[in-house]
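If your schedule permits, I should be very grateful for your opinion on a structural question. The matter concerns a single protein, recorded as an amino acid sequence and a row of backbone structure tokens. Could you please explain, in whatever detail you think fit, how the structure tokens follow from the sequence? I set the record out below, with my sincere thanks for your time.

——
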Amino acid sequence: MASPFTLKWGILATGGIAKLFSRDLLVDPSTRSVAAVAHKIVAVASSSSAAHDITEGKGDESVKTYGSYEELVADKNVDIIYIATPHSHHHENALLCLNAGKHVCCEQAKHLIRLAKSKNLFLMEAVWTRFFPISLSLLKLLHEDRILGKLHRVHADFGLEFPHRDPKHRLFKPELGGGALLDLGIYSITHVMMYLYHHPDNQLTVPEVIGTMLKAPEMGWTSSRPSRSTPPNCRPAGWLRPT
């Protein structure tokens, strides 16, 4: 039996999501009935301090640590990079990786697809919801078996307990992608897109987006005017009022 192909990963940033991703990445592939490929973390980088162990003891001493992202993307031993920074920085970080010739796994980076194609690089938008077995089962039940008949509406809710009340925390900073809409909103939107936009009857018709927002004082919002940066195919419904 041939040895499995080993994909060598670099992890860009060392926050909580980097630890969660690394933990799952290093699970024995045989537990998922996979034998042809294996994953190895070979380098980690942090822009704020010397990179530390994010593998929780599952890695090995050969993992290189870098104090800058530029050093990470220059490492010739790295095949692909997982971007674990706040998503406000994803475009900048993904651009750095792609221009260095690295494959990229990153949330919310669809607008870089053209660049990745031009360089013959793999770029995956890593919204894990789409990969859940239960998500695939639901799509079959709704789109093929049509157990609910014709779909007219999807209500998607998602929330997490957030015990931190420090106003300096990232989740209170819109410029770092903080807040319920910017940080968690993509997951609810993903469900709506999977069940309605990708429904065979919709034929990939572009939806009209209508949105409202409650502005929390903790986020630094003070204006009650509707957003003026609405894309051409979107329009605000009502006014954006503070909570």
